[in-house]
Design a protein that fits this description.
- With 471 residues, the protein is α+β, with helices and mostly antiparallel strands.
- Among the domains are: 109 residues, no CATH class; 106 residues, Serine Threonine Protein Phosphatase 5, Tetratricopeptide repeat; 86 residues, Serine Threonine Protein Phosphatase 5, Tetratricopeptide repeat.
- The strands form 4 sheets. Strands 10-11-3-14 form a 4-stranded mixed β-sheet.
- Helix 7 runs antiparallel to helix 9 and helix 16 packs antiparallel against helix 17.
- The longest helix is centred in the N-terminal third of the chain and has 22 residues.
Length: 471
Amino acid sequence: MQQLPYNNRRALALIPLMLFLFSCVTYNQRIADYYAAMRNNNYTAAEATLEKTKILQAKRNRLLYLFEKGKMAHLMKQYDSSNRYFNEADIFMEDVRTSASDVALGTLLNPMMQTYKGEAFEKFMLHYYKALNYLYLGKPGDALVEARRISLSNYELQDKTKSDNKYNDDAFSLMMQGIIYQQNDDWNNAFIAYRNSVDLFLKNNNSYYGVPIPQQLKQDLLRAADKTGFTDELGRYEKLMNTSYQKYPEPPGGELVLFWENGLAPVKEEQNFFFALTKDGLGNFAFVDPSGSFNIPFNFSAYNINSSDLRLADLRSFRVAFPRYVEQPMYFRNATVTLDNQKYSLEQAQNINTLAFTTLRERFLKEMSTALARLVVKKLAEMAARPKSDDKNKDTKEAIALAIQAFSFATEKADTRNWQSLPHTIYYTRIPLQKGTNQLQFQASGQSSQTINLVVEGRGGQQVQNIVTLR
């Protein structure tokens, strides 16, 4: 049996090491101890585990660390500390830019090695938690500042997306914005925010990323129109929403807006796609998969790659690692709140599970093209290292090319990071309060049931609270 040259054997010997260093372990698996403690409602242990989780100490994952620290502090009712972390996360997202080193790491290794910048919906959830913290701290003015920043984030996303067919606005955040304005007795801006949220639902056939238009939102808009004297708008939206305004006297103890954060957001895992490069009669390139399900046009010049350097025979097969979301099943499916023998149902307000799946699907083509470009660059480096027929030191060059090929294979990895302590779905309801002490009973049902007792002091005006069930 012919023995491989020594240099080739040495290059092959590096492959197990590379596979160990760049294994396909997902981000969720890397933070498994934290995730398990959080899911079991052991927030103190989860918060302590964050400091020991190596991947979260990496500079590139600073934003994820801040997200999780802020959420744990919120769950432990440390609202000041929570907002310190969330404010730092906010500044990070405002200031972070794609650096040359980040581009190089993403091209030569994989996107998991780049700085995590956050999903668009994660930024809106940051506003939600910051506003909640301020309201718990009795700082409605600071919550109002956060409400205004929701509009800025919407404008920024619209400028970035430039498409009405993709996620470029957030109905839940606009709803939350209206609630905050109402908390500050700013009925005019509350009307505008509620109207903007309703308009998003109406524009999308009364459903927005898995959430049917809430009946409570309809009534909140009509009430705001009534409060501001916009009688024409009140009548117009009654017709548009096919509903009637149910006017009621101000409750003596005010109202409670109660959010229920149920379950956990989906996590990401890695999936593999296989592509071959094809060229049509006009000289246009495209990557196609064996089943013919995907045909992705590819412009090499957009990535500063000279197509004349390419030979289709050398680019016949590519393995692309790409993320996909995995839903975390909800333990509870429905909930009611009982006060003085009166039951109040909770409606969906935000479905982060659907939002995550859909937004990843919306940007599939763009991100897959970037991944293919990354692999082409690696393949060209391998081709450049291969010896020509008349080269001296052919064994050495062949070993280098083999090592590059092994390195490319070992480092091909999907970015499986995301803010994993977000809820699966957020529900809400509005409850009229009596003056003085109100004893509320929250009842969640599903695979089993859970009861949470709430004591709320009715003191007039509006209050906002949240209940969390992570299972």
